[in-house]
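pasting input
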Amino acid sequence: MADIVRKKVVSVEGATVRERLQAMDDSAVVSAFLGGEERAFSELVTRYQTRLLNFVYRTIGDREKAEDLVQEVFIRVYRHLHRFDRSKKFSTWVYTIASNLAKNELRNRSRNPLVLFQTVQKNFQDEDRPLQFEDTTSRPDDMYRKRHLREIVEETVAKLPEHHRNVFILRELEGKSYEEIAEITDCNLGTVKSRLNRARNSFAEIIAPYVD
Amino acid sequence: MDCREFCDQHVAFVDDTLAGIELVRMQRHIAECATCAKHDAKIRRALLLFRNLPSIEPSADFSQRLEARLRASHNDNPFVTTQRNLRRGAIAATVASAMMLGYIGMTLYHSNDPHDLLMAPVVATVPEPDFTPITTSAPAIVTSVSAGLTIWPAALFAEQIPVGFAHSSLELANYTR
């Protein structure tokens, strides 16, 4: 009986801590983790895992590898959080790590074309990805058209030059400000705007025939 | 506004970060220039398509895999190791400090104790005189010298002198013992 009561108290305490962490901003959660609250790290993972996964996936185009890279991001965060400059935004720091890892991955691929080929093959065979462009109420031909369209969009993004694609995804998908993108990609503001403009124009140019 | 200026400012126009006057100028240009209006529409439609791409979710075992990797890296984490070493060092230092403080405290406590009074009082006493008689086997030399006699009787005993002195010094040593 006493054990049950104790377990209940512990779980209630855990729930309270989690709720308190959920209510905190990133900076406070980071402080809590550095103060010895291990659960704070889980909160950071919960907040960023999907966003980072989408960002990395759109950048490198391989879902499985994207998951590995996102895990690597969190491991690096875990190991180096004590060195993080807390006067800066945590999200910018995390995205910088993710961006660098994605960049390295693309660089490694370009050095090893076999990897690229395998990755492309895997992507085309992967039928498990969610088809959220579709809804079950649509007619089959609509569903086909939407799936086809989604593939075209993804392929079009993949066709953009790496430094354009990075800026493009950070802006259009993650909604980062120009300043944040400049910090993440280690470019000046003018370069960010210029790359974004080119990326938008290229993307629109490639996708236009399929949309019209 | 010309088309070139429109294109230069188009990023900010799409992101809605232009100042009021600039925004009005851009809108006025679109109303006047069909080419730029078409370009603007093309960009916006394309972006809408991209922004509506389905979001992908982490796989079911993502958290478990991450946890396992974190646990594995936890032991190698220099920060954690340093913290652990610091904690150990701090504990050792605390124990050492406590022992040192205890020792100092004990010393100070006992230094105030009147333990000197517990010892027997020191009483000055005059040493008892030693009445051991001085015995010397060479009285002749002593008497002859102190009596101021002429030197020749001493010369007569000259060959006995070393023996006498030696004997005398031995006796003297016995006396001082």
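fyi Residues 116-134 of chain A have pLDDT under 50 and may be disordered.
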